[in-house]
UniProtKB/TrEMBL annotation:
Its EC number is 4.1.2.-. This is Fructose-6-phosphate aldolase. GO terms for cellular component: cytoplasm. The keyword NAD does not apply. The keyword Lipid metabolism does not apply. Its main location: cytoplasm. GO terms for biological process: carbohydrate metabolic process. It is an enzyme of class 4 (lyase). It comes from the Bacteria.
Amino acid sequence: MELIIDSADVAQIKALKELCTVAGVTTNPTILTKSGREATEVIQDLIDILDEDQKLFIQVVKTDYEGIMEEAKKISQLRPKNMYVKIPVTHDGLKAIKECKKLGIHTLATAIYTAEQAFIAAANGADYLAPYVNRMCNYGDGVETTKDLIEMLRIHNMPAKVVAASFKNTYQVHELIKAGIPAVTVPCDVLFNMINHPATTIAVGEFTMNWQKAYNRKELFK
Ligand code: E4P
């Protein structure tokens, strides 16, 4: 399974890259605005901190077919490899995904709220499909719909990878990992919550305290 970071926070991505085996970074226009900096500079920083084999996903901002294609071509050239263009599954977006497939531009179909939207994007040649798990919970069960999608792609032998997105808690991630999701993109706060547990800190404190009490030193070896 690919673990991807859903953020453009360079400092946090750097820290999480050290802690976890990360397959890449996803962003969207809203995520990029959160830095308070010029988006193109943030994108360059992301390119600089990622290893060559880690994927970077940048979303188009234009919404008409020609605009999407123009931005998709530019995004795809930002790095020699592992560069993906995120395209929302609107009418223009679906047309663009099909055209990108013909041109060899890697895409991630985004802003997906139903398994059917994802299935159509997969048939158009999207490499990744991003169901918005948490947001889908406003309309039904985002986790269950994403599980259905994985099953639909398996039955029809379609190569597109589901990268579950829009997580707000570790439970949603847990359920989809358990269901065999091929990829998840997780915001930094949720990822830190997956890693940290107060009881772990307490347990380590107890080990240190008991050791010091018994041996009057902090190290294993004298
Ligand atoms: C990632 O690909 C999506 O753009 C992102 O997960 C959406 O998250 P949000 O629902 O928190 O905006």
